[in-house]
């Protein structure tokens, strides 16, 4: 889900490209979550939705599930009704709005089976006559009925009560793999550096190793945050083991605190930037974009805050599904309201920095609304005929499958384009804007005052004929662009030239008061000659 697209939101964030890996993961998560609502899904759509359970970390692993059962049994969990052993000895039959879990008494074992409580399904008492002969010998009895999230995970052969702990274990594995991979790569670079020279990109990674590590961890948290909210809230509603509840509370609190902490920090630096030089500094000042760009880097400068709306909508989606479990109409209507708010915001302000980002996210939002409208047909309270729901289920599969293929193709195309096309924001900042270069020579606009006390001299460039220094007088260099151009030199005190991002070619220092020898230079006259690379030639 856009945090589902940030998260939806969101590797594409820093580069501004869309769709990205986070967009695809978010979309697959949304299709899986669609199958978790408490409605009467056609069998064909239930099977389709379960194919995406992997994106929610719903993968059966016997060793892990047995360990979770042991953990729950030692912390007050009820493993007689929900455990790996019970799942393996059970089969599920869909029945109207729910699903009947049938337990094989012989496979489960008499001592465990005698503890299982027999329930009533839709007014039919199975406790008096609940034995059936399977293959002529095996006794099968009704255990319980499930719907919504429980039905989804049980169909994937996972115990319902193990849901949160399963996600927690897979998250720990993913984080361990990510951290170990980055650490091993750093060790390899250190060894390489001892025997040879590193490229600029590798040396940059080596120098900013901890920053890269932290950013990667935060990125993983962002991608999985919507899923985490869903399962933590569901664990709160389910109860069971006190240890599972404690872990759900702690982890949800930590992840939410991390996101809120970054959000507050970004708001603070945005306020600071708007006061001192302009909101563009969020994108132009490299330390900020490196640390926080994964949150706002894909949005236009004036809509840098849009990631807050994305996060809030993602949280709301998961909350409606988890806390509304058992009430399909509430789940669907609540999500529809959020999706309409989100798509109205997309249409109104078009927040993404490039056109493709806006188009793709609008398409995803439209398909989400269409999907929820189809799911609304499956709500029991509406009483839609079974034949109609089957047709709608097929339509829903086609819509979601087409968008999935489209996203995959767009990612491939985007990757090919990225190889040959420069980042638009980097391209914009790699050289001074043509109008800004002209403004340097427009004394009528008040941008060049030769006798100003802020006059600066360009050192390091020498005329090949005379060998004399070329003086460049610029009044209040930091305000040349009048709020529309780069102001990093002013607010950071960086000694850089307009055509040189890193300041490696020249240094700006004060001229003596009244030194106006630069007034006759081409720079001051505005008729600046350039070489083939677009750099000024004096």
From TrEMBL:
Gene Ontology cellular-component terms listed: membrane
Name of a matching Pfam family: TRP
Domain TRP C-terminal: 6-430
InterPro entries in alphabetical order: TRP_C, TRP_Flc/Pkd2-like
Regions of compositional bias (Basic and acidic residues) in chain numbering: 514-538
Disordered: region residues: 485-538
Ranges that cross the membrane: 164-189, 209-231, 243-268, 303-323, 329-347, 359-379, 391-420
Biological process terms in GO annotation: fungal-type cell wall biogenesis; transmembrane transport
Keywords linked to the UniProt accession: Membrane, Transmembrane, Transmembrane helix
Descriptive protein name: TRP C-terminal domain-containing protein
